[in-house]
Amino acid sequence: xxxxFADDSFWNTPIGPDAQIDPRSDHYLELLAGEYGxxxxxxxxxxxxxxxxxxxxxxxxxxxxxxxxxxxxxxxRWGERERYFSHGPGFGSDVPIPDxxxxxxxxxxxxxxxxxxxxxVWDTWACRRRPDGEWESYTGMVYPLDGGGVWRTGDxxxxxxxxxxxxxxxxxxxxxxxxxxxxxxxxEEGAIEHKLAYxxxxxxxxxxxxxxxxxxxxxxxxxxxxxxxxxxxxxxxDEFDLSPGSRVVFRxxxxxxxxNVDNARANTLYGEGLYGHPGRSWDxxxxxxxxxxxxxxxxxxxxxxxxxxxxxxxxxxxAGEE
Length: 322
Description:
Elements: H1 25-32, E1 41-43, E2 51-53, E3 60-65, H2 71-78, E4 92-96, E5 111-115, E6 120-129, E7 135-144, H3 184-189, E8 196-200, E9 203-209, E10 223-225, E11 228-231, H4 244-255, E12 258-263, E13 268-270, E14 299-301, E15 307-308
Parallel strand pairs: 1-13, 2-5, 3-7, 8-12, 9-10
Antiparallel strand pairs: 3-4, 5-6, 6-7, 8-13, 9-15, 11-12, 11-14
């Protein structure tokens, strides 16, 4: 079985039989039913992460710092900064990027590269190939494929009010971009043996819990990033009109659950982006709306860990500001 991170990492550990449901689970599920809410979607066509494999034969590229396109807007939002986006350890002249690689064509422009032989991962946000053929990105991280896959807030020189993107991570919750992805080969093989990742529009302002290392939430009484959610393990997938592929996802959500990693204008999970892979497609295997057969009442928010009250300082949105 080929999966990201060490076998005993948080991402690869099932939810234990004695795990408790958070006392506010019903409240959080009501929030998820609000603006841009409802049953969970699966991002497959855009706003997700394409993953490319590399080895010693893959061409090494220079990934340049992408300049901020609207520095005045950044100054209004976060104040003066010497540099708005960190070069991070993922930038430089020795990043393996295959010739056929294409970043997410939607606004986030994520791209990740995995080298199974050296057990190394590179991931980026707002990454693109320039007209001159060179690559540039706002963020860059490089980390071990067989590590724990969890970063701590103290790993970054981030200050309360900052975006974690200034410091390297490409996910707003400060987690690896590849963590929690639904990979095509897993669905084909009939089993996902790790936690999944999700995003929502109902995230709490300056509240997060591990494995999140930060947050970009903006709701006064929202769901902290890092929150773990599962489908009730007592449910039978035969109760729902699920495709074979969505049954695989359903089972993973019962056994491992999913982690809140970002803001999105939907409740959504993330499937591997197949943009730059000719001949590969999700067609007939998994569709973006397949999980919407499962109502929110079937989900459970697990007991939150210690909540840290720091994060991105974007505007707080209060109840009633829809």
